[in-house]
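[User] At your convenience, examine this fold.
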Amino acid sequence: MGAHEVARTGYTRAVDVYERARPSYPLPALAELSDALGLEAGRTVVDLGAGTGLFTRLLALTGARVVAVEPVAAMRGRLAELLPSVEVADGTAERTGLPEGSADAVVAAQAWHWFDGDAALGEVEHVLAPGGGLGLVWNTYDDDVPWVRDYQDIYMRRAPAGLPSHREGTWRATLTARPGWGGLQERHFANPHRMSREGVIDRMLSSSHIACLDAAEQARVRREVEDVLDGHPETRGRDHVELPYVTDVYWTVRTGAGGGTQAPPPGAHGGSGAGPQTERAGSTFRVRIRTPG
């Protein structure tokens, strides 16, 4: 089974545990992206590979019109149930089916590494209005923590050949080499996620290729996770643990095929240009967050 078929099959099987076990994203990360891309009432943002809508529901807080694009029917159905006010489309990043120039921004959270980078960028360029922006977001394990490193090893040892990861950087090379885009900006935010012991196990079982395993192998995975939790002083004997994530946020603005500069979207800023920065999840932010009606 190829890596992308693994994803489709795994996420179809694990939609309930995915929604239950996956972390959300810190509001300062949303604020940074909203400010950079000018997300506000009267503007349209497309959420590619929206899944069950973990980031979609945050995008809706900006007041922008949100269009969620998701190819997996089970995920799309759950998203529509949870967010009835959001427009949900059956499509892929490479073929959204959306009209030309219909979006002011395109965002992908926990998804871009699954896409065909060149084809997805071509579709983004088709969908974006002039001067529109692209935002990419990932929650990643903080594997500087020893127990998290051992936990992640359970996942990695079972990863099929060719399983994509945003950490290996192919997406970045493809994006930065493509003409017509501004410089890639990035920020990083601590995102600790307090979970029950069972939630930590569910988080592992929600991974696409783990969800594809047969029942016996999934039971082995469960035992291995329990062994990790029992083997480290930070997690041993605890009903709840903190699973530390870092939320990685990247954005760039379309400058046109000729590479000429255009005005950024309303309310947007281009970042400091000083390279990667990390903030605590509790830091303040400027963006106006609206609660959907």
